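hiii so my PI (J.) wants the whole complex modelled not just the main chain, which honestly fair. so below is everything: two entries, each one labled with what it is. i double checked the lines twice but i was tired so who knows lol
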Amino acid sequence: AQSVTQLDSQVPVFEEAPVELRCNYSSSVSVYLFWYVQYPNQGLQLLLKYLSGSTLVKGINGFEAEFNKSQTSFHLRKPSVHISDTAEYFCAVSETTGKLIFGQGTTLQVKP
Amino acid sequence: DTGVSQDPRHKITKRGQNVTFRCDPISEHNRLYWYRQTLGQGPEFLTYFQNEAQLEKSRLLSDRFSAERPKGSFSTLEIQRTEQGDSAMYLCASSSRTVQEAFFGQGTRLTVV
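here's the output for the full assembly
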């Protein structure tokens, strides 16, 4: 069975500092990997996805992630965060049906 | 098309009542998913439709829950005899076979009192 582990439940960071949100997955088959962002009382918005090809994936709002097959990781990074990046971030793996398995989420708290 | 639409956005109901939520997917998407999200947790898969066929149901989907997607368009999720443990955000998403990306609605927040 597939599973996703987000290693940090909360990540506090000062504005304009870099940030990394960690995600590890387990799967016995090839997977698609995603990062979603959720603002309070909202649905989920896709930040970026890895389907195949280059292991470095760039997304919206200056975020990027690197797929590492040997370490089964898909960590999310941003070189300089803004107050507006404060939100809940979810890593997810999908099966061929498109069904998503999510991690527990990481709360990014950007401080002024 | 403005994306995935869910109705209502909020629902407060008394324990034991039945509730029904609606999801309108992106029109060209043939896949539709329901997820449940409780506070501080990631969304959990409930069920999946391809066109009008319900192809997978989670063990989380007890017999009090039923979902339909008549004619492969909108979908409804009904919860019968609601319990306080059903309080959660119910999220709907849609996708297509060719686009490996799920688009989510704003969710319906259910509170059972």
